[in-house]
Design a protein that fits this description.
By secondary structure, the chain is mostly helical. The protein contains 18 helices and two strands.
Length: 691
Amino acid sequence: MSLGLIFALLCAILVLGHGLILLRWMLSRPTGSARMREIAKAIQAGAAASLRRQYFAVVVVGALMMVGLSHWLGIETGIGFLIGALLSILAGYLGMLVAVRANLRTAEAARQGLEPALQVALRGGAIVGLLVVGLALLGVAGYYLMLAPSDPGDMPGQMRALHALLGLALGGSLNSIFARLGGGIFSKGADVGAVIIGKDTADRGADDMPHALAIADMVGDQIGDSVAMAADLFETYVLTLVAGMLLGGLLLGAEAASAIVYPLVLGGVSVLASVVGIYFVKIEPDDSGSMSALYKGTTASGVLAFILFVPVTWLYLPASVALSTADAEFSRWGVLGAAAVGLALTGLMTVISEYYTGTDYAPVRGIAKASSMGHAANVIAGLGVSMRATAAPALVMCAAIWAAHAMAGVYGLAIAATTMLSMTGIILALNSFGSIADNAAGIAEQAEMDESVRAIAAALDAVGNSTKAMAKGFAIGSVALVALVLFADFTHGLMAEGRRLAFTLDDPAVLIGLFIGGLVSYLFSAMAMEAVARTAMRLVEEVPRQGRAVPGGDHPQTPDASRLLALLGTATIKEMLIPSLLPVAVPLALGFGMQWLMGGDAGALALGGLLIGTIITGLFVAISMTVGGGAWDNAKQYIEAGHLGGKGGKAYAGAVTGDSVGDPCKDSAGPAVNPMIKLINVVALLMVPLL
């Protein structure tokens, strides 16, 4: 039994234990007035009911996929799929349970000032981050420990265990795409519907709307932010570990046993560093609109993690390693250099995200200024920012890919992805802090708390908008490296079977795959956007219907929150099924279809083209929609803060329109492209032995 595996498991257990200690502290905080508890209870009940509907769909689809995986790829892969799906569901559900309790306590703590409210929201977010990474590390290390052969030199047994771990990653990916799409459709359907029905664009803010619509909006925020991001980063973390382990097994020959365990040990020391980094996050009263204080926590985690990477690398990798598939080698220092590249990429992506979505910078202020000229000018300016915002991330990722590959070859890409995802704990903590602060502001508004309390809650909400944008930038950046590692797994998996394929543009199978891959990202995003629009329109139709059922009823004031939530939940399940299954159906249809049509290696070549096309177009679509939507949102926030005429002015009316367009971009379609890319890659990897 490997000491590295035991160490990773112990780290996971320690982090889960620390998360539970923080949970106990958070639950001991005061819960406020009866009115506040009533609002919080409605949010909790609505979120739980909506998740139960969503998870029922996951269970039904997942059961069918588990049967197929068990039949075609073995019972170990099927069981791994079940474990991955269940852990991902648990991670998302825990994220919701914590967030809907921390929001109430944050609102009440705001009575005491900014610092007490900040601490409750931060620790609530930390609980979510630690529980999610703890469960992910526990699942991967624990299942590998169950499957790994007792003899480290038994490479066929090692590879069987690693392929079973792909099933675990697929289970997490399936729930992730359901959570992202379901959460985004529910959240933005509620939000856009509420804009159309309940907001007077001259006077009202996001939380100042009729009670039932506000409840639906806040429930949607919890599902779309806390649950979806928890499931997304759980999947990404698991997939990165598994991809790095598999690539190590394929590349490193005689050194494969230690290379397989190496990513798990990196993950173990990283989650410990995240625990320490969380306590470095301090926001002083005069920092409420700045991200500078938040960088203290991420920087502390990254620096401490890298220091711990040094002894781990010296313990688990030899001084020089020759790759089994090429005349190349790399050293420990090269691997550490690649690790540093991954950490640096995390920092650069967060800075870029802040620049394009922060109210202190030119892109957001430019959109706000354009809003003074009307609705169309706002939309045009926002589209311009969304397209331009793809340049800096793409160039930074190109530099990171070159640097990591130069230092340690394709294995360097795997290590850079692993160390980038080592920051998942603290990034997810800051994202969950944002959703908690958002709901706390809503509770303070709906409970009509004192103006000073609402001002503190609004200040936290402003910080939370930046942390959520930072988390989305991190998630997108991680996809680029993870997808490249998965593609390397795909090509080296083919090599391991004696199939050395060249993906060239003069091959029709590759070209067909490229075009289909480019198409999928746009088609998937279109389905998600249209689903939000249809769901919002159902809400728009339902509220007047309920109003007409009450003699003399003023329909914006009389809707029943539970009925609206049930309608949103049912509509979400219906709308998310087809786009969620698209990333599974496309590689299956393309791979087996091209194999049948053209024979030979056409199926594998077409899949390779599909992966390349999906990675390239998906990355740009995700960045453009996510960053652009965040810029639209914060342009409205900038005007709400009193600039350019504030609420009631022409600029604010235009900004509300832009925000309504940007919301489904940044919270539904854009973020959902991330798990779509990864799911297509995992399905393609699992198809290798079947083609």
